[in-house]
Amino acid sequence: MQATPPEETIDARVRRRLRQLRTDQGLTLQQVSERAHIDVSMLSRLESGKRRLALDHIAGLASALGVSADDLLGGTPPPDPRVRIEPARFNGVTVWPLTNRGQAGGLNIVKMRISARRRKPPEELRVHEGHDWMYVLDGRMRLLLGDQDLVIEPGEAVEFSTWTPHWFGTIDGAVELIAVLGPHGERTHLHP
What is the value of pTM for the model shown? Predict the structure, then answer.
């Protein structure tokens, strides 16, 4: 069994990055030392590990190499921006999350596909805290909103307080829409 190599220290990582960035740019120790206002022998000792890096070296060295301090420190790479949450299906609705949880200021953006079978509203319409916004991409959506019975066509958007009793379904076929829901709307609409 092969042992896991020890994690690289910050000091070692910066030394490695310093040497790598300098050589990638074709710069000599002398050129970088002049730009960073550091003695060339000190720079050589910093790169070789014979002298420890101090915080006050980082900014000057990064500037001399034309990179940010983060680039020189070689921090962790940014997270993958893709949203990789599996769609959920319930009550005739399939929901594809378009945001990672909690990233949009508490709002969740989803794509929904309402099955053509979701045509009959419940006996009692739901209410909850919050605000919903929906944009119909395809199909005709039926929206019961208080005493109103509305048909929302493709290209139309609706926005309403969720304190108003409401339900949404289909008229004559499946509906695809984009919705922006707050945390209360997500709990109500996206969980069985």
Answer: 0.59
Question: What would you report as the CA-atom Rg of the chain, rounded to the nearest whole angstrom?
Answer: 28
Q: What is the pLDDT of residues 18-70, one digit of tens each?
A: 888 888 888 899 999 999 998 999 889 988 888 888 888 888 898 888 888 88
According to DSSP, the residues that pair with 134 across neighbouring strands are 158, 179
Q: Which residue has the tokens 């690289």?
A: 8
For the segment(s) 88-190, the CATH number from 3.90.79.10, 3.40.47.10, 2.60.120.10, 2.60.40.1270 is: 2.60.120.10
CATH of domain 10-73: 1.10.260.40
Name the residue type at position 104.
A
Tokens of 177: 């829409």
